Every structure is written in structure tokens, then in C-alpha cells.
Amino acid sequence: MLSEGSPAPDFTLPGTGGDAVTLSALRPAPVVLFFYPKDDTPGCTTENKDFTTLAPEFAKAGARVLGISKDPLSKHEKFRAKHELATELLSDAEGTVCEDYGVWKEKKMYGKTFMGIERTTVLIGADGKVVKIWPKVKVAGHAEEVLKEVQAL
Description:
By secondary structure, the chain is an alpha/beta fold. Helices cover about 30% and strands about 30% of the residues. It has a single domain, classed as Glutaredoxin.
């Protein structure tokens, strides 16, 4: 189970913009990973737009912000273009990173039980260790809260 202070599991995933992203290669920059269920749904769109709005502030703080879902790269590209998103999106089509980070969970909606991504954000410090985990994220005000934590590093 991932916990604050533990090493963040390394990964390489395909990203929007054409390049694969390897987490360990981003050091010593702090990294914000926000896991979200699905492109082009209301909550996920709002969350991505909020991180996009604050992208200059995250950059000023030296942090990389990466959104991760199981959607294919082609869907990520359309989603970014449609909503003019600045955040880089990574495709975890196989779900291994979601499982490594403990965000692939049993969920319930409208009386049905299914497996899906629990909206979670993980802040990784310059040393590659988990600084903070936000499980079961509520979108409103979340990107601002993460930015404050990044600025405090």
C-alpha cells in the first residue's frame, strides 16, 4: 500500500505530446500525479481545467503536473484539444500504474458495483518519495490545495 514517505513506484507511460514519460527521469522536480476516472466527464473535465488554470503557478514552483487515466492516448489528445488543456495526460491503458498506486478500486454507483479509478492525487518530492496523498478527491478547490502544498516544499 502506498503511503506518505514511501518511494513512489517508478513507471514509464505514453503521454500526450508524443513522448513517453518516466517518473524517475523527472527528478529532482516535484511531481503531481492526479489519477482520474475518465476523459470528458463533468468532474474529470473540471479537474483538468483547474490544473490547467494553475499550470503557470505549478511551473513557477518547479513542479510537473501529470494526469493519469486508463483512457487511450488518442482519447487524451482529443480531450486536451477540445478543452484546451495544458496538463500533460498519460495513458495507463493496462492499469498497472493505477494498481501500483492503489487507485484501482471497487466502486459503487446507482446500486451497481464495478472496478474503476478512485480520484486520487499524489505529490512526489524531489527525492522520489511520496509527500502527500489525497484519496477520494472532491474536485472543487482541489487544484488550489495541491498548489499550496507544492509551494510549501
